[in-house]
Every structure is written in C-alpha cells, then in structure tokens.
Amino acid sequence: MSNRVVCREASHAGSWYTASGPQLNAQLEGWLSQVQSTKRPARAIIAPHAGYTYCGSCAAHAYKQVDPSITRRIFILGPSHHVPLSRCALSSVDIYRTPLYDLRIDQKIYGELWKTGMFERMSLQTDEDEHSIEMHLPYTAKAMESHKDEFTIIPVLVGALSESKEQEFGKLFSKYLADPSNLFVVSSDFCHWGYEYYRTIRPRIF
C-alpha cells in the first residue's frame, strides 16, 4: 500500500493570479485592509472565482468575515466548468498547493462522504483544469494564516444537479453546516460583468 502524498499544483498561478508568494500575500493584505469585519464570524460565504484582477477586491468582503480562531474545516464548493457532472465529485489528491502554503484535504470527512455513494471522483487533470475551487485557495490560506496548521479543507466539485439531487446533497451537508467549527465557501460566477461594482454588489455572508 502506497503512502505517497499526491498534490494538486496551483495550476492557475501565474495567469489568473500571481505565482509569487510575497506579491500575492501583499495583494491579499491590501484588499483585506480596505474592508470591514461586519458579520464575523461567518458560517458560510459566497464569493466570485474570476481572476484576481477582476474580483480580488470583491472577494475580500467575504473573507474578512472568516474567524480563524474557531474555523477548523472549510468546505469549498465550486461548479464544474470542464466536465459534465450530474452529481458532485471529490478530489483524488491529499494536498492543494498555493503560492502561500499547502492546504491539506480532510481525509476523515472525505471518507464519510465517500461512504454515502453520492460522489464521483475527480481525476487530477480535471482537478487542475478547474478554476472555481482554486481561486478560493489563496484567500482561504490568507484568512487562516494565524492558524494554518489547525484546519483542513474539503473541496467539492458541483455538477448540474436536479432539484431532487439538490435536496439530497443539501440534507447531507446540513449536518456539517450545523457545526460552528465548519465554514462553507460557495464559489460563484454570479456577476462576471460587474465586479467593478463590488461596493453595491457584494458577496453574501451568512
């Protein structure tokens, strides 16, 4: 049995956002410093997944509400752009890399989700092609940096779900949402045409 750790590279670094750790850190700090922590601690946030040039300042409104002192698991739900899915899918790797530091997937929670039989498995190629989850990784790392060895992530790729499947997955995830140490990040393209208006069209905080 292999104990080899499998990593997903930060495949959109250098194009959708800078691959330089120090430069990325400075950008995130700058955006976060310009917004207020008004609804902290958030239990769930909805934030965009475009390139940071377009949505970096907008996403800061959401991530400013994250409380790293109580957050231990972060569920990141992103829509599938490259492969057809009628269900949700889980990653096949152990680590998601970012220019800031590596993020560990919670294999215990993944094990619980796999046991339901409700999930497909992402190939590494699909995982690295997809941007909807990756665009939230640097902000997640930044928001949690003061407790970076004390949390895990649970990335979930979301397909085109029927109403009945939405209800099934909603019921499944509701028990995790009920735990105050869990944060849900919902990745959205809700406003590709209007990120510049982030002062009036802000991410949702719950």
Automatic annotation (TrEMBL):
<comment type="similarity">
    <text>Belongs to the MEMO1 family.</text>
</comment>
<dbReference type="Pfam" id="PF01875">
    <property type="entry name" value="Memo"/>
</dbReference>
<dbReference type="InterPro" id="IPR002737">
    <property type="entry name" value="MEMO1_fam"/>
</dbReference>
<protein>
    <recommendedName>
        <fullName>Protein MEMO1</fullName>
    </recommendedName>
</protein>
